[in-house]
Write a structure and sequence with these properties.
Elements (H helix, E strand, L loop, with lengths): L1 H10 L2 H15 L6 H20 L2 H11 L13 E5 L5 H7 L9 H12 L4 E5 L13 H10 L7 E4 L5 H12 L7 E6 L3 H10 L5 E5 L13 H23 L15
Parallel strand pairs: 1-2, 1-4, 2-3, 4-5
Helix pairs in contact: 2-3, 3-10, 4-10, 8-9
Length: 265
């Protein structure tokens, strides 16, 4: 299932679909019998690229995901622990280049550092192994340990879980390591767009967590733009999360199709 999900993720990327439409349309244009179909595919690809470039897809597609779990308006008086999901560091590039390669979700780590300083007695776990199909021996936990040490954070406070490959395994393996107790307050730190699925997974393993979203992509103010890269990225991210929510629910890995804060949804 892990391999299937990774292959589907690659094939469903907007760039892959657009490239397939353009390639197939171009080939069909060389056939008199299929010329009309070829032109239709090329026109469809062109219109899709224009839509991706100008429509506020980040707000329309990612906004509902990011707004599902707002950051708590009242900071808890006491926090027993902090869970940080991987996804901020590229372990393959880090290993090949000999230095930590940080990605766009670095707020997961900087957010953790800020919370750790605010709650010096809180237990901390970073959970992130390898999500790769080929370089499975390179775990994200190791360059994360190095990154935190380089910025002066006390890594002795952190439990590093390095075997998980997806969000469900993040929850399962972290639960085994930390053994959370009833009544404890644990903050879950991950990208806002990833929070609904993450909270649902942790609830499904019996670990009620408090969402602490970071790494926002949407602004909450839809407007036309001209940014093809942002449009493709928004569509790719939305497809990844929405299909992930459906797949996880079908497998019983989340407690709801679209998890919501307690008392809502």
């Amino acid at each position: 299932m892990f391999v299937v999900s990774k292959i589907f993720g690659v094939l469903s990327q907007p760039d892959a679909v657009l490239l397939a439409l353009v390639g197939l349309g171009t080939v069909l244009c060389f056939s008199k019998r299929r010329l009309r179909l070829g032109r239709a595919l090329l026109v469809s690809a062109s219109l899709a690229m224009i839509a991706l470039a100008v429509l506020p897809l980040t707000e329309w597609l990612l906004g509902p995901l990011e707004d599902r779990f707002p950051q708590p308006s009242n900071i808890p008086a006491h926090v027993d622990g902090i869970i940080v999901l991987g996804g901020a560091i590229d372990p393959v590039t880090s290993a090949l280049r000999g230095q930590v390669a940080v990605g766009g979700a670095v707020e997961r780590l900087t957010g953790m550092v800020a919370l750790a300083r605010q709650f010096p007695a809180a237990r901390i776990i970073f959970t992130g192994g390898s999500g790769s199909l080929t370089n499975t021996e390179l775990k994200e936990a190791e360059p994360t340990r190095r990154f935190l040490a380089e910025i002066g954070f006390d890594i002795s406070r952190v439990v590093f879980e390095a075997e998980s490959r997806n969000t469900r395994e993040n929850a399962v393996f972290s639960t085994r390591l930390m053994q959370p107790q009833a009544g404890e307050t644990w903050l879950l730190v991950t990208s806002a767009v990833h929070m609904p699925r993450s909270v649902g997974v942790f609830r499904a393993v019996g670990w009620p967590v408090t969402a602490w979203p970071v790494d926002y992509l949407s602004t909450g103010r839809p407007r036309l733009q001209f940014n093809p890269g942002a449009g493709r990225g928004a569509l790719a991210g939305a497809l990844h999360e929405w299909t992930g929510l459906i797949a996880y629910r079908l497998r019983g890995w989340t407690n709801a199709l679209f998890p919501a804060p307690i008392g809502e949804g």
